[in-house]
C-alpha cells in the first residue's frame, strides 16, 4: 500500500557525509507514492551533486534564497505552501541550531520559517557533537515547538567512532514519514463532493456562470480518497484532471447537478457541497442564438430568471441525511453569513471562504478558511488548497468519530 500516495515531500539536505543517502531516500519516498522536491544547502553540494538529486526527483533542485528566477514569485513561500511535509535528512548540528534560533539566512531555514505543514528532521553528526549540551538544548527546544525527530541511530560512524549520531536507516525514515500522515480516517465511508461552477443556458452559445475553478472540490476529493473513503465527485465544467480512485459524474447545469446528487445520495455517509451552484437560471433558454440587432441606438435586453433548486437544503431535508458540510463564499461579513447558512440549512459543518481576498479567491491555488460547527469555530491559516483539504477532512473525521462514540 502506498501510504504517501499523492503527498508532497520537500526534502532538505544539509552538509554531512550522510547526504549521499538522500538519493536512496528520494527513491524510497517515491516508491511509497510521494512527489519529492529537494532543497540543498551549499555545504550539502560538497557531498552529493544537485544534478544527481534532480535526476532522481524529476524536479530542479533549489539552492539559493536570493534566486532572481524564483524569488520574483516568492519561491521560498511557494515551496513552503506546496509541501505536506518538510523533511530534513540529514540534519546537521549547524542546521538544527539555526532552526532553533529561527534564523532565515539560507533557503532551507527560511522555508522552514514559512512552512505551515509539519517539519521533521533526521539528525546526523559525530557522536560528540550530538551529545554536546548546546545540541541537546537546541533539540529539546525544537521538540517543544513541534518539530518531529527521526533518530539519530547508534553505531559505527564515518569518522571511525562508535556512538549515537548516525542517520537513521532510510527504510525507518520512510516508515516514520508515513506515520505522520493520518490514514484510514474515513475507511468504510462513502463521500459525495460537488465541485466547480454550473452553467445556466441563455441560448445555445451563451450562459450564466461564475468564477469557480473547482480546485478546492477536487483537492477535497483527493484528500478524502487518501483518508480511505470511497469518493463520488459530481463536477461542473472545469479544466482539472480527476484524482486517482475518484468516480466522477460530469454535469453542466444546476438541474443536472441536483439530479445527479439526488440519484446517488442514499449511498453516501458524507456530503460536501463545494460547488458554486448558480442561484438562478433563465426561465427559458432560446432555441437559436439570440442575434444582435444593428440599430442606431443601443439595445437593451431583459432576462427573466427563476431560482434553481437548493441542492444542499434538499439533501438536508431527506429522512436520514448524511453528514452535511457546506461552503460559504462571501465578500463581506464572512463569519456572520456563514453561521446563518449553517443554521438555516441544517448543516453539520460549514467552511467559510473570503473570495474578496485575491490570494485565496476562486482561481487561486491557495485558500484560507474558517470551519464552523454548531459549537466551534476553527480558523485555518492560508495554505495550499491541498493542505487545507487535509485539515478539513481531519475535522470531519474527528466530529464523526465523536458522534459515533457517543451513540
From TrEMBL:
The active site is at residue 159. Pfam families: DFP, Flavoprotein. The keyword Flavoprotein applies. InterPro entries: CoaB-like_sf, CoaBC, DNA/pantothenate-metab_flavo_C, Flavin_trans-like, Flavoprotein. CTP binds at residues 279, 289, 309-312, 327, 341, 345. Residues 1-190 are annotated as: Phosphopantothenoylcysteine decarboxylase. It comes from the Bacteria. The keyword Cell wall biogenesis/degradation does not apply. Its EC number is 4.1.1.36, 6.3.2.5. Residues 191-407 are annotated as: Phosphopantothenate--cysteine ligase. GO terms for cellular component: phosphopantothenoylcysteine decarboxylase complex. Catalyzes two sequential steps in the biosynthesis of coenzyme A. In the first step cysteine is conjugated to 4'-phosphopantothenate to form 4-phosphopantothenoylcysteine. In the second step the latter compound is decarboxylated to form 4'-phosphopantotheine. This is Coenzyme A biosynthesis bifunctional protein CoaBC. The gene is coaBC.
